[in-house]
Every structure is written in C-alpha cells, then in structure tokens.
C-alpha cells in the first residue's frame, strides 16, 4: 500500500485525543488517564508529529480539535473500540469462559420483554453469559456511565444526550382502575387536565413509567401529575393496590394486559394526552458494543411474531 505509514500510532495517545475531544481540555483528559498535563501534552505533540497533521488548537480556555483532528478522532474511536474488544476477547479466552454481556433494563422491559429476547439470543446460538440488572431508567443511564454494564434498555421519551441509542420498539401507557372504581363506568374519556389533577398510585421517581407520564402531562396541560396517592417501586405492587380498590394508576399496557383480559382491572379511556413512548437500547457514546450485546439489540428490534 504505497503512501500509507507503516508505523502504528500509540493506542493510549488515540484514547487521550478522544478524551480531549470529549472534555475540551487536555488537563481533564490527562486526569482521566492518570497522567500529568505535561505528559499528556507531550503525547499529543508526538501523535501530531507521527501522523503529520495538526490535531488540536490550544487556547487559554481549553483545547479543541482541528478539522483534521475531528477526522482522526472518528477513526481513532473505531481503533480504540476494536482494540478494547480484542483485549476483552483474549481475556475471556485466558479465563477459559464464554463471552459475557452485562445488561441493565428498566423494570417494564425486564419483566415483560427481556425473557423472550434472552430466549431468542440463546436460540440464535450466542454462547454468552448474561448478567441482567433490573433497575429504573435513570439508574440504567448511571450504570452505563460507570461502565458497569455494556448495554441498557429504557422506556422514556428523552434519551440522555451523552449516550448512544437506537429505538427497538414502542410501548403505550394506559390508565387502569379497579372494576368498582367510578372511572371504570364512565361513558366519556378522562380529559388530560382531570388526569393531571387526580392523585394516582404511581411508580417511584426515576422510573421510565413515571417520567413518561410526567412529560406527557406536562406537554398536554403545562403541569405534571398531582401528588401521588401512593408511590411504589414495582409494577406488581401498583397493580395489587389498584385492583384492591385504590386510586387509578398509569402503567404500561405490557404490564396490565393479563389483568385487563381477566377483568381484575379496567382500562380507562383518556383524551388529550399522548401516552405512547419509545423503547430504546442505549450504550456508552463512542464505545462499540460486544458482539453478544449487538445481537441482543438486533433481537429486541425485531417485531414480535416475526
């Protein structure tokens, strides 16, 4: 390959360049890698000389990538991700174990969708050990930022901007009440303003269900839901309280389909508020997922029944 340099750049220096792009500061990037700022600056100077293109514009308020530097950073991200995958794969071989995929899923996804996805992953021949954490949507994002999991699944209208994401499906929230509740016998839908003003049995703050309801009512009425009648940390607990004659609740249709079908709960029609929400796979920005994690995301994106 005539004209192509045969000397490979140092991977640690490429990672340092990516951190400068992320933080806008050589000092902060150096701290992330346990280097002094002077050492980091020398590494970047060497990288510029080796590649033969200017990578950074240094200023009193920070550092930014040149147009050439942004191009190099795009290629560097792929190289660093591939090297990381190589090292993880070799480590797995040394340990004599199969690949492991660490997954975090919000409660609704974990309870009603993840079992089928994992069965399909196994049926597809993926020899991977799955470590599943069931947390609320806010905690999924926190685990990804801490590199504690490889991929997460959330149900929320807004995805944190620092995470990479892809939509894998759509869910719908529904209002449910006990058969004896006055809302179960209405002849007209509950309006968005009435829903917002009514104390409900609700999931805990940070859950995708709670956040979706707050955002949807905020967009429809300019206000969030009223103070909860009761706040619980699981779909199952909310359903028990509602079916026992408590206040109505708003839950995923996935969570209440069985109870609606057998008459333990009644779906209440609503008007003026859109309670649909996307189901989204998320992972760390600039990080390439492992092969088992990518396969799980592809399985999640396949419509049910296909």
UniProtKB/TrEMBL annotation:
Keywords: DNA-binding, Transcription, Transcription regulation
Gene3D superfamilies found in the cross-reference section: Periplasmic binding protein-like II, Winged helix-like DNA-binding domain superfamily/Winged helix DNA-binding domain
Signal peptide start-end: none
Transmembrane helix as UniProt keyword: no
Keyword Membrane carried by entry: no
Record domain HTH lysR-type: where: 9-66
InterPro entries: LysR_HTH_N, LysR_subst-bd, WH-like_DNA-bd_sf, WH_DNA-bd_sf
Domain of life: Bacteria
Family of the protein in this entry: Belongs to the LysR transcriptional regulatory family.
PANTHER family on file: HTH-TYPE TRANSCRIPTIONAL REGULATOR, HTH-TYPE TRANSCRIPTIONAL REGULATOR CYSL
Protein's name according to its UniProt entry: DNA-binding transcriptional LysR family regulator
Originating organism: Murinocardiopsis flavida
């Amino acid at each position: 390959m005539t004209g192509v340099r045969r000397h490979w750049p140092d991977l640690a220096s490429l990672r340092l360049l990516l951190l400068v792009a992320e933080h806008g500061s050589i000092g902060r990037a150096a701290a992330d890698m346990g280097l002094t700022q002077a050492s980091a600056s020398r590494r970047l100077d060497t990288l510029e000389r080796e590649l033969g293109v200017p990578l950074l514009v240094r200023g009193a308020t920070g550092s930014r990538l040149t147009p050439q530097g942004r191009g190099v950073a795009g290629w560097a991200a792929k190289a660093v991700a591939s090297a990381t995958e190589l090292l993880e794969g070799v480590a797995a071989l040394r340990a004599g174990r199969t690949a492991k995929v660490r997954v975090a899923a919000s409660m609704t996804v974990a309870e009603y969708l993840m079992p089928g996805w994992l069965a399909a992953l196994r049926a597809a021949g993926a020899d991977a050990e799955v470590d599943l954490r069931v947390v609320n949507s806010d905690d999924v994002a926190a685990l990804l930022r801490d590199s504690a999991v490889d991929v997460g699944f959330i149900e929320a209208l807004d995805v944190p901007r620092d995470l990479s994401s892809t939509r894998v499906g759509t869910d719908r929230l529904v209002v449910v009440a006990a058969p004896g509740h006055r809302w179960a016998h209405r002849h007209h839908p509950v309006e968005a303003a009435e829903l917002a003003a009514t104390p409900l049995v609700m999931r805990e703050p940070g859950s995708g269900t709670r956040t979706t309801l707050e955002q949807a009512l905020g967009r429809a009425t300019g206000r969030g839901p009223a103070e909860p009648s009761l706040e619980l940390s699981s779909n199952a607990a909310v359903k028990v309280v509602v079916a026992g004659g408590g206040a109505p609740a708003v839950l995923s249709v996935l969570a209440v389909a069985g109870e609606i079908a057998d008459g333990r709960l009644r779906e209440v029609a609503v008007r003026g508020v859109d309670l649909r929400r996307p189901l989204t796979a998320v992972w760390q920005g600039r990080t390439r997922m492992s092969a088992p994690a990518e396969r799980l995301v592809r399985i999640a994106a396949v419509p049910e029944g296909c």
